[in-house]
Specification:
Blueprint lengths: L3 E4 L4 E3 L3 H9 L3 E5 L5 H4 L4 E2 L8 H11 L6 H9 L1 H10 L14 E2 L9 E2 L6 H15 L3 E5 L1 E9 L2 E9 L4 E5 L3 E3 L20 H8 L4 E2 L4 E8 L12 H4 L3 E3 L19 H13 L5 E3 L6 H4 L1 H9 L9 E10 L2 E3 L11 E3 L4 E2 L12 H19 L23 H12 L6 H18 L3 H19 L24 E2 L8
Parallel strand pairs: 1-10, 2-3, 2-11, 3-7, 11-18, 17-19
Antiparallel strand pairs: 4-6, 5-6, 8-9, 9-10, 12-17, 12-20, 13-16, 14-15, 15-16
Helix pairs in contact: 1-6, 1-12, 3-4, 13-14, 13-15, 14-15
The structure holds succinic acid.
């Protein structure tokens, strides 16, 4: 097959969410390749955590982030993140973001689980991600230095003996192009779609992780998946999210007899760390005792939580009168491409940022509302690093053998993988279940590898399952029923060095 080649003189960013656009806007020139539809940023209801309140400090925010992380977050990365909070908010306001204000005209600060202070900045109640996306997309639109090419999905990374040299991508008409570029920044988001139940949009399939593994980039913490406790059980895929801010405003979790069940799981009850609440709900379903969010006491619901209100109405429910049936759903990936706060991967020419990266800033469990902040703070740092590191342009790399001939259709077996991951590699894992998942993936492999979406699903599922098997303890988002306690000998990050695949 003849593949068109396009030489880009500047860095190419894959993905146009908060992390990707923050990198692109920080560079003297950049091209952004994006599928174009809204990704996780646009859907984020939570907000941006930033220590901007009078009673708050970046140190306190760092300490909350460390506590929730299961003890393995990288302290230095956490300090960089939390110290950057107020500057990131100021920058967004300069770019035109409209955040919710209190009666004094100051930023109105909400509270979420794991935060000792009110420090969550919101826009339009529960539509913060949409406002961040609108602001950054508008800035990119008017910028002469950023070219956003919509309708492109990355298939693979191009490489030569020295490292990554560009990307292979396909447009919405099926045309495949090899873009050569001196620097590639993966801002492709997480892997939520590998699970049957997820709050992540359809485009969040782990393409960046899979492509990075094919070039042999070091990966980290792949067993740590965060399940959000409260997806709305309304028969929709992805599951509509019921933001945690509702619990911050006094909503409770009750069983099918109206009794609060979180009181027996954690002293902070509904505001316990997210993994604790998610597992408690999982067990409620396991014993068929029901799990509902009771938000009837939340004042001014429709105006304060318009997104959730609309979701509930679509499901025929009124949160002012009805209990909302909830289930956990895959929400955020703490693992990813191993990178420091500068975003550099272990392969020359390749950077990763945002949810695609694993900087260690979240450890085994992410503190609520730290992810938009991560995209903003680390996005700016990655741009600086890429700018100073450039200089290896003009190389023509190749892609993984056979990949350009794969079909672009999603095979039905991807649904089998999603179900398997939910049942065996989900909130409660066991050694037997994980081996079972591994064997079943091997059986499914031949029917997945002939298509790009199938292949990505296989690669991502295999990476997460293998990492989960390696960690025989429970920590943060990774819970092993056969090893329910943390083991201090395993209080480390898990790094994986995949073997690079052969190229054409
Ligand atoms: C939420 O609103 O509950 C999600 C916030 C987050 O994931 O940080």
């Amino acid at each position: 097959m003849t593949i068109e080649r396009v030489e880009l003189a500047d860095p190419v960013v894959i993905g146009s969410g908060v992390a990707g656009l923050s990198v692109a806007l920080g560079l003297p020139r950049a091209t952004v390749l994006t599928v174009g539809s809204l990704g996780s940023t646009g859907w984020a209801q939570g907000g941006i955590a930033a220590a901007v309140g009078e009673d708050d400090t970046a140190e306190l925010h760092a300490s909350d982030t460390m506590t929730v992380s299961g003890g393995i977050a990288v302290q230095r990365a956490v300090e960089v993140l939390t110290a950057g909070g107020s500057k990131a908010i100021e920058r967004l306001i300069e770019l035109g973001a409209q955040f919710d204000l209190d009666d004094r005209g100051e930023l109105k600060l909400g509270r979420e689980a794991g935060h000792q202070r009110r420090r969550i900045v919101h826009a339009d109640g529960d539509a913060t991600g949409a406002e961040v996306q609108r602001t950054l997309s508008a800035a990119a639109d008017v910028s002469d230095s950023v070219d956003v090419l919509e309708g492109w999905r990355m298939i693979d990374l191009l490489r030569d003996d020295l490292g990554v040299t560009g990307v292979l991508a396909v447009d919405s008409a099926g045309k495949i192009v090899a873009f050569d570029s001196p620097a590639v920044i993966l801002a492709t988001g997480g892997i939520g779609q590998i699970y049957r139940h997820t709050t992540n949009p359809a485009v969040v399939t782990g393409d960046g992780l899979a492509a990075a593994s094919r070039v042999g980039a070091r990966l980290a913490d792949l067993e740590f998946v965060q399940f959000h406790p409260t997806g709305l059980m309304a028969g929709r895929d992805p599951m509509p999210l019921l933001t945690e801010a509702l619990r911050g405003e006094g909503a409770t979790l009750v069983d099918d007899r109206g009794r609060r069940f979180m009181l027996r799981h954690h002293p902070d009850a509904e505001l316990a760390p997210r993994d604790v609440v998610a597992r408690a709900i999982f067990w409620q379903h396991d014993k068929q005792a029901g799990a509902f969010l009771d938000a009837r006491n939340v004042e001014d619901f429709p105006s304060r939580f318009p997104t959730v209100f609309a979701y509930a109405q679509e499901a025929g429910l009124d949160p002012r009168e009805d209990l909302l049936p909830v289930s956990p759903a895959a929400h955020y990936f703490m693992g990813g491409i191993d990178a420091g706060s500068s975003g550099r991967s272990s392969v020359s020419g390749l950077w990763a940022v945002g949810e695609a990266a694993s900087t260690g800033v979240h450890g085994a469990n992410r503190l609520a509302s730290n992810s938009l902040l991560e995209g903003l703070v680390f996005g700016a740092l990655v741009a600086e690093d890429v700018h100073h590191a450039q200089g290896l342009g003009g190389r023509i790399g190749s892609w993984t053998a056979g990949l350009a001939e794969c079909s672009l259709e999603r095979p039905p077996e991807v649904d089998a993988v999603r179900q398997l991951m939910w049942e065996r590699v989900g909130l409660v894992r066991t050694g037997n279940g994980l081996w079972d998942a591994r064997n079943r993936l091997v059986e499914l492999q031949p029917r997945l590898m002939g298509s790009i979406p199938g292949r990505v699903a296989f690669e991502v599922a295999a990476l997460v399952t293998t990492a989960a098997l390696r960690r025989s303890e429970s920590r943060g988002g990774h819970y092993r029923a056969d090893y329910p306690e943390p083991d201090s000998f395993q209080a480390n990050r898990n790094l994986v060095e995949p073997i690079p695949k052969e190229t054409e």
